[in-house]
Design brief:
The chain is an alpha+beta fold. The chain has a domain at 107-195: hypothetical protein PF0899 fold. The protein is 60% helix and 10% strand. The chain has helices at 21-104, 109-122, 135-143, 184-195, and strands at 129-133, 158-162, 171-175, 178-181. The termini are far apart.
């Protein structure tokens, strides 16, 4: 049956549809197919997003591990340098403090006697000694009648002299074998040399 005439309605049609059952089923099938396609596209997008996110996380993790390894390597190299610098600085500071303390000590006869005995003990192979002292130290020993100045066993051939090269509290001992330097500044320099890295 074919219809050739137009039908006019007084009002527009609302919710009009075909009454044929096949068309309704066809529409539902299309909607179901469309819904399946949407769900499949959503699942593909979800899987692709997860894959890309996983790749991005792996790249970031690799970058973080590389950064961490770089920082640790830098620290491994820096720590010994810092320790060495601090060690040198502390040694230098300790030597400076020791030098200032020693220089600040009042010079006593016992101190000068100790320096002379220590220097003479290093030259026991010789029987003749020339001991050079600071003029004030020699005067201090003479003033208190120090036993070091009195000739006796082991020091019968010891002669005392003053020298401007000798600082207070130290001495130089000259023997036929050489010179023994027992000045304070020489002792500090030797300590410094021994402790230098």
């Amino acid at each position: 049956m074919k219809w050739h005439k137009s039908i006019l309605f007084s009002q527009p049609l609302v919710e009009a549809g075909l009454l044929f059952p096949e068309a309704s089923e066809s529409r539902q099938a299309l909607e179901a197919l469309h819904s399946q396609r949407e769900e499949a596209a959503y699942q593909r997008g979800l899987v692709e997003g997860e894959r890309r996110l996983g790749e991005q996380l792996l790249r970031q993790r690799a970058q973080l591990i590389e950064l961490q390894n770089g920082v640790l390597a830098s620290l491994r190299q820096a720590v010994p340098q810092v320790v060495s610098q601090w060690e040198s600085g502390l040694i230098e500071l300790a030597l400076e403090v020791a030098g200032k303390l020693v220089c600040g000590l009042p010079i006593s006869a016992e101190m000068v006697e100790g320096a002379v005995r220590s220097a003479v003990a290093q030259a026991q192979e010789s029987t003749e000694f020339d001991v050079f002292l600071h003029a004030d130290d020699l005067a201090l020993l003479q003033e208190c009648s120090s036993p070091v100045l009195v000739p006796g066993p082991g020091n019968e051939n010891m002669r005392f002299h003053t020298s401007s090269e000798v600082s207070r509290g130290g001495c130089l001992v000259e023997t036929r074998f050489g010179l023994i330097d027992a000045r304070r500044e020489t002792k500090l320099a030797l300590i410094r040399q021994c402790l230098a890295p």
